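We modelled the chain as a single entity of 423 amino acids. Its sequence is:
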Amino acid sequence: MKKSILSLTLLFVSIGKFVAQDTLSVLFIGNSYTSYNNLPLLVKNLSTSAGKTLNIDSNIPGGYLMSSHLNDATTLSKISQGNWDYVILQEQSQIPTIDYYRYNDMYPAMTDLKSVIEQYNPCAKIITYMTWGRRFGGQQCDPSGTYCSPVFANFNHMQDSLTSAYLEISELLNIQCAPVGVTWQNILNDTTLVLHSGDNSHPNIDGSYVAALSIFSSIWKQGTSGLTYTAGISNQLAQYYQSKSDNTIFNSANDWNLLINNPSANFSESISGNTATFTNSSSSVNSTLNYYWDFGDGNTSSVQNPSHTYTTNGTYTVTLIASNCIFSDTITNTIQIGTNSMDENTHTNFEFYPNPTTHQITINVEKQLLGSVYTIYDYTGKSILTGKILSEQSVIDLGDLSKGIYLLSIGENLERKFKMIKE
């Protein structure tokens, strides 16, 4: 059993705040599954209705493979323009279901495209756009009939193959996946609605709208429920699609690497006299972080692990912002300097386990924390579960919480955030 054990000084912290920009630039690289119904424009219009600005460009010729784009002058030219915040990669619809092409064409091409994208766009985040199965399944073969997929019994059978392929390459490359195909699957298994066009392959406007919802949330890290843009679909049906998209993405955020690019700000400090030495424990999976410290006395620093000498005794609020291009996370700690400061060795011990967990966590505290309030927040900062710690060992039932990443805070006046994962 893995425990998360942390030691809290008695003067602490506001919960960290995750921030993303409101203006982003996105390049779509794909084929007709992206060009049908002008998917990039649908995503842009959804963004506008959410008060966001999305600058878009694309190269989406019909039938193109990722390997086609890797050798395409237009694609390479658009990538090399730089300044893209996101690049979205959509493979040809059959390739991921045929093992030969999945492993010998799609995966190597996406790997090489990732290298090219990062060469010209050091800050760019990459999202794979998971497509959907044919309406009635069937066998998928290359034009020569040399390499084929299994004979898929139905849509779900083919979708499972596509889902596996997109999740595997996204994990291998440490990049996001927009689970459009799974959102389709959840809708089609719940209703008799049709999302395919007449060829039983490409999307009708409903299918493209559903795709746009998933991609919107993958970019902005927020839900779509309540957005006014409907692409001409009835409000009632659009709201249903929004709800299904949000449930798909945010109830299984770990599956899509949704938060993989989120920096996590954190630090501790030791105090000797009037000098505070800060140890930075911020983290990020794919990017090198930049740091901004505000020591609370008018002085700042961009050093990773700074020391700062205060000229006056007192209480100071120290803020650290950890950022990786378009995302940042902020944490604020309160410290005491001088003769009125608390004993540096005085701590209140606190631990919670297991982490990750499946259905409950156990919180162990010392007597000083009895009666404190615990709060669990979702990734947006919304409080979803709260209560009081009434004993030195308390069990919190998480059975109603969906899988995902949460923040646990302890105490109303000594809050600190801890990442908690429910599997």
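As a brief sanity check on the tokenised model: The longest helix spans residues 99-120. The first strand starts at residue 4 and ends at 8.
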